[in-house]
Design goal:
alpha+beta; Structural Genomics Hypothetical 15.5 Kd Protein In mrcA-pckA Intergenic Region, Chain A; Pseudouridine synthase; 10-stranded mixed beta sheet; 5-stranded antiparallel beta sheet; 19 strands; 22% helix
Length: 346
């Protein structure tokens, strides 16, 4: 008996989780062959890399590719997301690379850049830029010059993104994301004041039943996928608050949807209602101040600030941090000035 993936494309995390229960009449068969027959588009090399990465479990124990499946075995496998069959042209686009070795690459992505080609964005993406960069990469393991994505961030979100340079590294990193052992912190400017200094937002996230482009939190029922965001208040400016967010899960638009759910949309987040004046006075000068801030940061005020994980090959723990982009820095400074001015008048 087979089961469809428990998770298929974890939103911003690009992997699949399959679970199989072996039929009672199943003859002994190598597990790599067994899985090739049951998972569409899964090559033997991909399955063997999954096994090397410890991503194939039988009865909750990791197995090698030559393990012989037996009746009633319970098989669990995490596979990296299959690439779309489209031709991607390398393009000479500047990249801010924070770190690079034979197996991984860390990029600080600018806001406005799409991660992967897709409908409406077939070129000019991060993947196009990375393919151009890898043309000059001399590692034998990456001779095919492919980009192996493990996760992604939204077009108008800036910050750190981790990329694998070979399939084995990708498989091992996918398991880290699946096990929630990757440390990810974001900085966001959100509407409203907070009574508590920290908190946890929980609730299944799925596509809105009214608008497929928007994600919605479903607090009850099984619709959507479980999502957990931890937040900590960094500074309150009266009408907006600077927060640090730590992700346990990586759903599409998770931070944006979660803060909308608790009535604190991200500043200037058009999709989730943050591009309106939600807090503050009715004075014309205040309205003009907000409009000026919106012009400075014409996107949601969200930055993927840091990333910590275990290197897929060496096993060494690595941690990377990035500076806030200029548009967020400038808007935060303006809010500090406004807050100080308001407080001095009281």
């Amino acid at each position: 008996m087979t089961k469809k993936p428990d998770f298929y494309d974890e939103g911003n995390e690009l992997y699949e989780h399959f679970r199989f229960v072996v039929d009672k009449g199943q003859a002994l068969l190598r597990i790599d062959k067994y899985l090739m027959n049951r998972i569409e588009s899964a090559s033997r090399n991909k399955i063997q890399n999954a096994a090397k990465a410890g991503n194939i479990l039988v009865n909750n124990k990791p197995v090698k590719p030559n393990y012989k499946v037996k009746p009633d075995d319970i098989i669990s496998i995490v596979l990296t997301y299959p690439p779309k069959e489209i031709e991607i042209i390398p393009q000479d686009i500047p990249l801010n690379i924070l770190y690079e070795d034979e197996d991984i690459l860390i990029v600080n992505k600018e806001a406005g850049m799409v991660v992967h080609p897709g409908y409406g964005n077939w070129d000019g993406t991060l993947v196009n830029a990375l393919l151009y960069h890898l043309q000059n990469f001399s590692n034998k393991k990456s001779h095919d010059e492919q980009v192996f994505l493990i996760h992604r961030i939204d077009k108008n979100t800036s910050g750190i993104l981790l990329v694998a340079k070979n399939e084995l590294a990708q498989a091992k990193l996918a398991k880290e994301f699946f096990d929630h052992t990757v440390e990810r912190k974001y900085i966001a400017l959100v509407w409203g004041d907070f009574k508590e200094d920290e908190g946890i937002i929980e609730g299944h996230i799925g596509r809105s039943l009214k608008n497929r482009k928007v994600m919605t939190v479903f607090p009850d029922g099984e619709y959507g996928k479980d999502a957990i965001t931890h937040y900590r208040v960094l500074k309150q400016f009266g009408y907006v608050t600077l927060v640090e967010c730590k992700l346990e899960t990586g759903r599409t638009h998770q931070i944006r949807a979660h803060f909308k759910y608790i009535k604190h949309p991200l500043f200037n987040d058009e999709t989730y209602g943050g591009d309106q004046i939600l807090k503050g006075t009715t004075f014309t000068k205040y309205k003009q101040f907000i409009q000026n801030c919106f012009k400075i940061i014409p996107r949601q005020a969200l930055h993927a600030k840091s990333l910590g994980f275990k290197h897929p090959i060496s096993g060494k723990y690595l941690s990377f941090d990035s500076e806030l982009p200029e548009d967020m820095k400038t808007v935060i400074e303006k809010w500090e000035q406004y807050s100080n001015y308001k407080n001095n008048r009281l």
